[in-house]
Amino acid sequence: MLVVEDEASIASFVSLYLKNAGYDVRTVANGRDALSSVESDEPSLVVLDLMLPDIDGIEICRRLRQKSDLPILMLTARDEDVDKIIGLEVGADDYMTKPFNPRELVARVKSILRRSTPARKARETETIQHGDLHVDAGRREVKVGDREVQLAPKEFDLLWELLDHRGLVLTRDQLLERVWGYTFAGDTRTVDVHVRQLRRKLGDASPIVTVWGVGYKVSPARDAVNA
């Protein structure tokens, strides 16, 4: 684990709880050291503070996403939706607002790790075709016709989960459990933000329909509708 946090007291207790959970942990206090540590140490997950003395967490997250789908849990000191939304939009897997319960942080770390690789390997040869939308699980590629669409890791996982359950309505809590691995009550706004991003990136090819008061489902493919 890599903990990127410039407040020594927070870095210390986050590190302590993660170590007690059985993880090897390294802590750094600024963005430059964070980027360097990711290159040299290849951590399994990054706990990333939003506010850092040099490069902020948003920019670090953006740079990491250009190279890898390394799981990122972002910490924000302000309980403002804009911080959370921006963090998720640049590719963070999850976020927590300070002050937070360190036991919940460990639970979220475990959930992110549990969902980050095994599920992908299990479906690595699978593909889904839905109208003009083609999703390749092994390559983690999404195409609309011949145009490739770049998705953040959780955006891809959310799209796959919805497509894999075509015909069913999935509640926000179900999606939190299946995509993010939560076994406790999570913040369903996380799901809404990712759906909004998918719709923006996929445009007219987005098959995601809101079922008000319940959750989301996939609409029939256009070719099936026109048939």
Strand order of the largest sheet: 2-1-3-4-5
Largest sheet: 5 strands, parallel
Rg, Å, rounded: 18 Å
Secondary-structure-derived class: alpha/beta
Order of helices and strands: EHEHEHEHEHHEEEEHEHHEEH
Segments where pLDDT lies below 50 for 5+ residues? none
Q: What is the CA–CA distance across the termini? A: 51 Å
Describe how the helices and strands are arranged.
Blueprint: E1 2-4, H1 8-20, E2 26-28, H2 31-41, E3 46-49, H3 57-67, E4 72-76, H4 81-89, E5 94-97, H5 102-116, H6 118-122, E6 127-130, E7 133-136, E8 141-144, E9 147-149, H7 153-164, E10 170-171, H8 172-180, H9 189-202, E11 208-211, E12 215-218, H10 222-226
Parallel strand pairs: 1-2, 1-3, 3-4, 4-5
Antiparallel strand pairs: 6-7, 7-8, 8-9, 10-12, 11-12
Helix pairs in contact: 1-5, 4-9, 7-8, 7-9
Relevant terms:
10 helices, four-stranded antiparallel β-sheet, single chain, 227 residues, 46% helix, alpha/beta
Characterization of the model:
The chain is an alpha/beta fold and 227 residues long. 46% of the residues lie in helices and 19% in strands. The protein has ten helices and twelve strands. A five-stranded parallel beta sheet has the order 2-1-3-4-5, with helices on both faces. Helix 1 crosses helix 5. The termini are far apart. The mean pLDDT is 85.
